[in-house]
Design goal:
six-stranded mixed sheet; 13% strand; 6 strands; globular; homodimer
């Protein structure tokens, strides 16, 4: 994050852009700073979203740059809500969302980046990944489907891949980890048992996965250490209003600094 | 090429598997060695093709490995004929051919490897590229659409990409450069003006491209120097019977050494 806006000081602290061997997620707060005003922030977010809509239109019109937004986080961390409320606020013609689930048989018969590369953004587009290639060094490691040697090779391949789309297609990559506490996760998973509008998300296996919290955190930490040529942003995500603000503000900041302009009449 | 078959001594000399800064294509013969017997070679090729058909079936059945055959060469070097006579001899269910032409608008709005990655072989498959990602450091450089800095970055990206599919999907990559002389090229291009079965291939622009022979050779030489983690084979290609033998034999050699076996009954 650039330092020109003092609102970003917290974000800046949490952004990982250099090799770090000592990051401990449990030492990073999952909540907004105490002094942070909820209503004030919501107003700011609304204003940012308005500007984002215009910036995205410009991105689309100019068709020079593209943006890839990678969203990772534990079950219940609010990925879907973030997409709906922040990314879904722009013209869907220029914003595409790809949700990565367990790979299909056809996907498994290719290298792990094959299904990812197909969906990188064309010039002018914003592409959102709801989960991503990072699952191949997260859930797969937690369940020991992927050994450490393979994981290391995958990390290198991921770094090469991100370099490829950055260098060769003006793709700006933003990587967000939605950071919630295990307590908040439990609360949200249980809500799915009660709220009719959330029941469709209920999956009893999520409770089994939740028991693997610590090992997931370790794998995330190793991921941040090894795949940070493109920096990660750790987004405190226990409060949706704060999470949405952080992501919207960062996307806004990136788009704002592209120095884009509407092309004139075609000759 | 492994050294277990003395037939391959010529091939071996021409295979580039280490950084070489001194390769000069014009010093490499485009013809079979004088003592090489045409009829004998054709018989050998026929036998190899029979075995290839069986080996490909095994590759498909086992679905553990995959093979990518990259074919490059100047206009008239015999890429189409090679595909028809050697690769086309196997079960088309397990052999796919992708011909790369000038990129479409959609392809140009992505990184140059985007359209390539989509067509890498699934496990069990043989994929043939008729022209390939290498055009992005060949024709593009000859015509100055791609500067040297970009070319260097593309070479790195190509090496990373080939490593990706090798390491992460058991893909065996064979890269063939069909090496013809400029005289042979002229003869073949002129044939297209006369032979009704070849007229469809005639393109007057090919004669313009042919004038750029020397700069093409230089770009090929730089390509071989910089993108050889996966070795290239320079195939003397003025005589089709020799070219077909070399490629068939090398593909056979690779498949033979995969130690494949038919899976038993599924449990």
């Amino acid at each position: 994050m650039t330092g020109h806006n003092s609102n970003f000081f917290i974000l800046q602290n949490y952004q990982i852009s250099k090799p770090m061997s000592s990051i401990e997620l449990k030492k990073i707060s999952t909540r907004a700073p105490k002094e942070w005003d909820k209503e004030e922030t919501k107003k700011k977010t609304a204003k940012i979203l308005e500007e984002l809509d215009e910036l995205q239109n410009l991105l689309f019109a100019e068709s020079k740059h593209s943006v890839l937004v990678v969203i990772q986080g534990m079950d219940g961390s609010g990925k879907d809500g973030l997409i709906r409320n922040v990314l879904g606020n722009m013209n869907p013609q220029g914003v595409m969302v790809k949700s990565y689930k367990a790979p299909t048989a056809e996907e498994l018969s290719h290298d792990f980046l094959w299904r990812i590369h197909q969906h990188v953004p064309a010039k002018g587009m914003i592409q959102v990944f709801n989960r991503s290639h990072y699952e191949d060094i997260l859930v797969t490691r937690v369940h020991k489907w992927c050994d450490d040697t393979t994981a290391k090779k995958r990390m290198k391949a991921i770094n090469d891949f991100e370099e490829l789309i950055q260098e060769h297609n003006h793709t700006h990559i933003l990587k967000f980890y939605l950071h919630i506490s295990p307590e908040e996760q439990q609360e949200r998973l249980h809500e799915r048992l009660k709220d009719p509008a959330k029941m469709w998300k209920y999956n009893e296996k999520d409770f089994e996965e939740a028991k693997l919290w610590d090992i997931y955190m370790q794998m995330y930490e190793e991921c941040f250490e090894n795949c940070n040529k493109v920096p990660w942003t750790i987004v405190p995500a226990d409060q949706n209003w704060y999470k949405e603000y952080i992501v919207a503000a960062q996307l806004h900041d990136v788009l704002k600094h592209l120095e884009m302009q509407y092309p004139g009449l075609k000759k």
